[in-house]
Amino acid sequence: MPGELLDNHGRGDASWSLPSIHPEGRKFGLIALGISLIFLLLLDWDLIGWPLLALSAGVFAFFRDPERVVPQSEGAIVSPADGLVTLIAEVEPPEELQIDDGSGIAGLPAGPVTRVSIFMSVFDVHINRAPIGGVVRRLVYLPGRFLNADLDKASEENERQHIMIERADGVRIGFTQIAGLVARRIVPFVKVGDTLGVGQRVGLIRFGSRVDVYLPAGTDSKVLLGQRVIAGETVLAEIGTRKLIEGIAQ
């Protein structure tokens, strides 16, 4: 059942269940379903009706919102998105997460950090989750272009939304939701001042996109380029842990 504590000693009760559909997507699925039924039942245009019916099923699947078992390790930074790790690079955090915004709360410190970029295709779950638990300190939306989200420059040119969360011990993590070629809307579920648990839902990006995570200084990625990750479950890094990890594609 949702919220039940599970562990790696077999304690708890887990079972498969059909993922729920997030309310944000139900209206789109119902619209597509209604149009398909008009073509099938009223107009008897099977050639159009059946593909539209398949499309409506795809829309519902896109907005699926499965439960996740979130690691509760003190130093764990979990993935905020489902998808493929397409970029791992040493970069400066976004200026919007560094500069003094007048709130009196410090942003991310200057200096290179590891950025892990996760690309979400239209087949991935698009509900994004908090990589750590803490208070939302910044939420900065920036309009922009709709370049292919796989491109490195998408981090600076595409429509995007920066989020910074601060833990009780002062550790701050920034991550960015980035729109892509198809994605045209970033939908936030949280606001500045909200207190979140690790893995809590924070928003979604409609129809294919990317999320960048800026790890704290002195912290390396525990995932590899080309690895698939799961929002709220895959541990991207352990705070303060540095170690080279290599893998072989096979």
From TrEMBL:
Chief location category: membrane
Positions where Pyruvic acid (Ser) occurs in the chain: S209
Site (Cleavage (non-hydrolytic)): G208, S209
Record's subcellular location: Cell membrane
InterPro entries with a match to the protein in the record: PS_Dcarbxylase, PSD-A
Membrane topology label: Peripheral membrane protein
Residue numbers annotated as active site: S209
EC number assigned by the record: 4.1.1.65
Keyword Signal appears in the UniProt entry: no
GO cellular component: plasma membrane
Cofactor(s) annotated in UniProt: pyruvate
Cofactor binding comment, as recorded: Binds 1 pyruvoyl group covalently per subunit.
Catalytic activity of the protein: a 1,2-diacyl-sn-glycero-3-phospho-L-serine + H(+) = a 1,2-diacyl-sn-glycero-3-phosphoethanolamine + CO2
GO terms of molecular function: phosphatidylserine decarboxylase activity
Cited Pfam families: PS_Dcarbxylase
General function of this protein: Catalyzes the formation of phosphatidylethanolamine (PtdEtn) from phosphatidylserine (PtdSer).
Name listed for the protein in its UniProt record: Phosphatidylserine decarboxylase proenzyme
Organism: Qipengyuania pelagi
